[in-house]
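Supplementary Methods S3. Complex input for the biotin-bound model.
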Amino acid sequence: MTDSAGSLGPDTELSAAFLDRVTGDTPFLQRWIWERQVDSTQRLARERGATDGPGLLVIADEQTRGRGRQGRTWFSPAGAGLWMSLVLAPRRPGDAWPLLTSLTALALRDALDAAAGIGCGIKWPNDLNHRGRKIAGILADVGPPGMVALGIGLNVRQTDGDFPAEVRGLATSVRIASGAVFSRGALLDGFLRAFGGWLARFEAGEDAAIIRALRGASLLLGRTVVVVREGSGEEVRGEAVGIGPLGELVVETGSPMRQVRLMSGSVLRVVPPLEVAS
Ligand code: BTN
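Predicted complex, serialized as structure tokens:
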């Protein structure tokens, strides 16, 4: 393990000097931990957040047990992506925190646009997609007490053949989307800047601006969706008609007209399919 007090080799792209500089420029971060290999940055971030407090970035070259939403595995090979977790103590009551995943997705979208010229959309609740394929995912865990851990996985350098068979064709990377190999450091820097801007808006209560941006970035609005509710497993089918004040998806179902507000879930089907969108 290397942390803010330690030092990495000078040849590594995410060097100690680099991480010192980017976190030094980032008001919501006080410390970082870099691991060559870890089971999950999210696990480590929550553990270290509990002992050392918020303001922490945990980033790893490789995760051996990267965790996705709903118990899924996040494929995180060495050097291929940005695998990281932020531990924050947002200056708003916990009932507003669901918006944090949405603004993380907005920040990733902005960073990819600015740094790599890739136009992505957000597939509710928190996948970032490019041409119908997932380029990044976000995992939010509440806790340690008073804190939230935001886990971010951004595929950067994979080619199609690098993805495991079960996600090949469904997942993409910055390299596939742009045709270029980008530095993870530049993408991290761009993401932290963009995230800082959105976090400041969140903390200032500018939820309307966040929701407006989410609506603009949403890939589902106006499409027919089938969503499996988290927990109950109930399938909700209808037209995605809005994004609510906490980032929830508003779906208009069947007859009689009934609007359902979904806080979390998995999108099973989208019509017309997202492949036809950017
Ligand atoms: C998803 O789309 O299912 C969420 C994926 C989140 C993956 C990231 S990678 C860094 C952090 N550590 C983990 O174990 N998971 C998150």
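The pocket of biotin is lined by residues 40-42, 63, 66-69, 72, 74, 76, 83-85, 127, 137-139, 151-153 (CB under 6 Å). The CA atoms of residues 113 and 119 lie 6 Å apart.
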